[in-house]
Write a structure and sequence with these properties.
Layout: H1 2-26, H2 30-34, E1 52-62, E2 69-73, E3 80-83, E4 85-92, E5 95-103, E6 110-116, E7 119-123, E8 131-142, E9 145-154, E10 163-165, H3 167-170, E11 174-181
Parallel strand pairs: 1-11, 2-10, 3-9
Antiparallel strand pairs: 1-2, 1-8, 3-10, 4-5, 5-6, 7-8, 8-9
Length: 184
């Protein structure tokens, strides 16, 4: 009789061990079972990026303008910005809107915009006081892509480039080679 209890206990232990091995293998723990670690996901190759390699500066096109705007690519900036003048907020249908003027420095073309405010952004500046800016969603073209992205409205008159493209535009679309210019 003792022998049968021992055999039943032994069989249950073997079944439990086999079930554990099967579940452990199916759970995706290949490293523990095979001793070989899984490869980390590979980063996107430059050929996988829609714009490929772009330079430190590139041309961007805004609707309503014939000439492009010179844009500086800044991987350190979270959000893009554009040189906006005569910025005035107003309310439309109970929501905050903004009216502003954009001037193309090259062609002197001008265009007034009226857009809903996407959000108010706190801009942290190195060695300067933080400022608050309004942001809007703007449609523009860079290379062969037409995109709609968030831009803060800033007085960039003293800057060399009227448009700054930050990570919200270039992330997942391009790799930046700062030694190159106007590759698109």
């Amino acid at each position: 009789m003792f022998f049968f209890y021992f055999m039943e206990y032994y069989m249950n232990l073997v079944l439990l061990l086999l079930l554990s091995v099967v579940l452990f293998t199916l759970s995706g723990c290949r490293e523990a079972v095979s001793g070989v670690p899984e490869a980390p996901p590979r980063p996107a190759a430059v050929t996988d990026l829609p714009l490929g390699i772009i330079g430190e500066t590139e041309a961007v096109y805004l609707d309503g303008f014939k000439a492009p705007f010179e844009a500086r690519i800044d991987t350190g900036a979270t959000t893009s910005s554009i040189d906006a003048r005569e910025v005035r907020t107003f309310e439309r249908d109970g929501k905050k809107w903004v009216r502003f003027l954009v001037v193309n420095r090259t062609s002197q073309e001008k265009r007034n915009y009226e857009l809903p405010v996407a959000r108010t952004v706190q801009i942290k500046r190195h060695e300067a006081e933080s400022t608050t800016r309004l942001s809007v969603m703007l449609t523009f073209r860079i290379g062969h892509l037409t995109l709609e992205r968030e831009f803060t409205l800033a007085d960039r008159e003293k800057f060399e480039y009227p448009v700054l493209l930050g990570r919200n535009v270039i992330s997942g679309l391009a790799a930046v080679d700062p030694s190159r210019h106007n590759t698109l």
